[in-house]
Amino acid sequence: MSEVLTAAQMKAIEAAAIASRAVTGLELMERAGAGVVAAVLEEWPEMALTPQRAVVLCGPGNNGGDGFVVARLLAGRGWAVEVYLYGDAGKLPPDARVNYERWCEVGEVTGIPPDGDFDVIVDALFGTGLTRPLDGDLVAAIEGLVERTLLAGPNSKTKIVAVDIVSGVCADSGRELGCPAPYFAHLTVTFHRAKAGHYMGHYTVAPWALRIVDIGLEDTEGAISLTSCPRRRLGKPVGHKFSHGHVLIVSGDHGHAGAARMAARAALRIGAGLVTVASPLGAMAENAARLDAVMLRLVADAVGLAEVLADARITAVCLGPGMGVARAAELLPVAVRAKHAPYIVLDADALTAVAQDPALFALLHDRCVLTPHGGEFARLFPDIAEKLAAPAIKGPAYSKVDATREAAARAGCVVLYKGADTVIAAPDGRCSINAAVYERAAPWLATAGSGDVLAGFITGLLARGFQPMQAAETAAWLHVECARSFGPGLIAEDLPEELPKVFRALGV
Question: How far apart are CA 70 and CA 454, in angstroms?
């Protein structure tokens, strides 16, 4: 898996490298500035053909120092470059001060944001270290400078480049500090590793491009993972159908059983050996008419579910999609208390039932996986959701990562908090982000039933022997890949059917 860092982790990595004398701060700053220039020319190669006009906005810290390097290197290419400094040059950190002086040998520095027609606007104001809201006058000045790009969108002639992260956005959470960030960047260039905030909050709204520049630093422990796919485990070794698990998907009643059928199809496609839909009497006819490879059992009530779960070959159960809250509340205790302890995925109506009854919440255990969207998360964990929704007035701001970790610890099981910035956390603090942004953007997933398919994917992987955290991570990753593979026009039913194509592309 790739990893992302918090601002504090990045600062510690840089400090350790400098303290060990492996590199100087000036060398890191020079590498960072050169990396920004290289990323700009790679993103827009036509800009390498003729000199352009750029403005570089430099802040009062080391991010500003990176900006002075960028300005100097662009000027060295024959570009017309203007530099604005927010703050007092006399108070710049030592390395940033050196690069300020180097720039002053080439060009001028102004204390008033320039106006004019620029090809590139480089934001090197605050970077990852920002912990307070931007000054209102500064926000107004930036807004005035980039107003035409906000109107023109990603096809604007003027390109906005953020060094490390958009100024005004918390690098740990992606949340805007105090007030809306004054723009969206066409290109964000960060160093060593992406930051957690690049995959959450502000960056999920208009995620155009992120480039990560290697500046010669070592890795660290404790980083947050980005989800990936364990190709080898997805293949099927020699065996029979029961070698790959038996999934039970509990259906709702007549007219509400489609969600369970989609989850069942998803579990079967992802490789579960057998899948059975447990149906109430009223939905038996419609389920029978729509199911072929998926088996069907009559389960009218808790007694009926207990009888089915007496079969120890059932390795994973999914409750919630289309069940109805009352049916979920009745059947959930039977599933979580089953003698042979199958894995349990709780989605949709099952989550609502748990949120409404503390006694049900108390039954959760480490073989459960909860898959809430924002509204369900708020019902399950209202105090945590309230903290996440509160305005971010200082950094590092409380993030979706923080919220999901706290929820998983409280519930004692894996929690997958859905969204374009899906976060998955285990009770022991392990955490990963499955972000459908940048080149992995999958807006077509915002369609009815896609969550039911995700629940089926997770249940199928659990049945096959994946541990809860890995099952949730792998399913979320494959869910996005199926949407990207299918493309525009996707509906939820298409997701399981696209999975074989995704597997073939992976070499499974």
Answer: 44
φ, ψ for residue 375, nearest 5 deg: -65, -40
For 415-444, the pLDDT digits (tens) are: 999 999 999 999 999 999 999 999 999 999
The arithmetic mean of pLDDT across residues 500-508, rounded, is: 93
Q: Could you give the angle at the alpha carbon of 155 between the alpha carbons of 154 and 161, nearest 5°?
A: 50
Domain ranges (residues) in the chain: 3-226, 231-506
Selection from 471, 375, 457, 363 nearest residue 424 by Cα: 471
Question: Cβ contacts of residue 272 below 8 Å, gap of 6+?
Answer: 244, 245, 246, 247, 316, 459, 460, 463, 464
The dotted CATH code for 3-226 is 3.40.50.10260
**Distance from first CA to last CA of the chain, Å, rounded?**
18
pLDDT digits (tens, 9 = 90+) for 462-477: 999 999 999 999 999 9
Largest CA distance in the chain: 83
Q: What is the pLDDT of residues 106-146, one digit of tens each?
A: 999 998 777 778 899 999 999 898 888 888 888 888 888 77
Q: Which amino acid is at 9?
A: Q
Assess whether the region 3-226 and the region 231-506 belong to the same CATH fold.
no
Q: Where are the extended beta strands (E) located within 332-466?
A: 343-346, 368-370, 414-417, 421-425, 431-435
β-partners of residue 250 are 278
Q: What is the CA 198 to chain-centroid distance, rounded?
A: 9
12-65 pLDDT per residue, tens: 999 999 999 989 999 999 999 999 999 999 999 999 999 999 999 999 999 999
Question: For domain 231-506, is the CATH number 2.60.300.12?
Answer: no
Q: Which two tokens stand for residue 90?
A: 């006399």
